[in-house]
Design goal:
The chain is α/β, with parallel strands linked by helices. The protein has two domains: 116 residues; 136 residues, Response regulator (Rossmann fold), CATH 3.40.50. Helix content is 61%, strand content 10%. It is built from twelve helices and five strands. It has a five-stranded parallel sheet with strand order 2-1-3-4-5, with helices on both faces. Helix 8 links the parallel strand 1 and strand 2. The longest helix is centred in the N-terminal third of the chain and has 30 residues. It is globular.
Length: 262
């Protein structure tokens, strides 16, 4: 059964009051609905992208209606409402605007899927909490709030820089795992932002080497993949959290603030 306390923390789910009224059987049924969403979402994600690429608006409407029904069942009310708004006017939305909406909508659904999976992995999540607490203490004793971001895409690193420009965080950007390890030979960081899919050394391998070298700062993986095997592997490698691409500035800052105190 998914941990009740961690479910309440998932911002996309409007269940704080509802869940307190659930007995064990009702909570088990609700947990199964959430797990079903996690299992089926990758297929919907792929189908929606295919339909968008083929300009198949009838298929898009069908997929959105199915997702809307699932979101209502799991009480993801705001996402369900957002979905409903687009269903009624899909064919009247300009292609570029619809493409942007779908990109960010699927990113939000991916984040919801990952949050649910993290609630399932209680042992790993607890370990992440321990690391988080330790680093919060350390960051209050330091003048720097250093974030090491590793991504092989220059455009994405620029997006991170822009998003954090007006914050007090010091962002160090490198484009490969090798460059990250070279930086860490003489430096440290309060937080790591690691892309998963990189040529040569991927994010999983880099995370393992970071831990082998004694760096204990929380690791947030940057990804567009919410499949079970990917999330489970990331948690095994010590993930404290995830940020889904394309990034949302407000969500990015909120995620970072959980692990670094300004």
């Amino acid at each position: 059964m998914i941990n009740k306390e961690r479910l309440i923390e998932i911002s996309e789910l409007n269940i704080a009051e509802k869940i307190e009224q659930m007995d064990e059987n009702a909570l088990e049924e609700y947990s199964q609905l959430l797990i079903s969403f996690v299992e089926i979402f990758p297929e919907y994600d792929e189908n929606i992208k295919d339909a968008m690429g083929n300009n198949d608006y009838d298929a898009l409407e069908k997929h959105f209606m199915s997702i809307h029904e699932i979101l209502e069942k799991i009480h993801a009310d705001e996402l369900a409402e957002e979905c409903q708004k687009k269903i009624s006017g899909l064919k009247n939305i300009k292609h570029e605007k619809l493409e942007t909406f779908i990109s960010y909508f699927l990113a939000n659904l991916s984040m919801l899927s990952i949050d649910i999976q993290m609630a399932e992995h209680n042992i790993d999540a607890s370990a992440a909490e321990i690391v988080k607490s330790a680093m919060k203490t350390e960051s209050t004793m330091s003048d720097n709030s250093k974030i090491l971001a590793v991504d092989d895409t220059a455009f994405f690193l620029t997006m991170l820089k822009t998003a954090l420009l007006e914050t007090k965080y010091k962002l160090i950007c490198v484009s490969s795992g090798r460059d990250a390890l070279k930086y860490l030979e003489k430096n440290t960081a309060n937080l790591f932002l690691l892309d998963i899919e990189m040529p040569g050394m991927d994010g999983y391998e880099l995370a393992a080497k970071i831990r082998e070298n004694g760096h204990k700062a929380p690791i947030i993986f940057l990804t567009g993949n919410s499949k079970r095997e990917s999330v489970a592997k990331a948690l095994k490698m010590g993930a404290a959290d995830f940020i889904i691409k394309p990034i949302n500035k407000e969500l990015l800052i909120a995620k970072i603030a959980k692990y670094i105190m300004q």
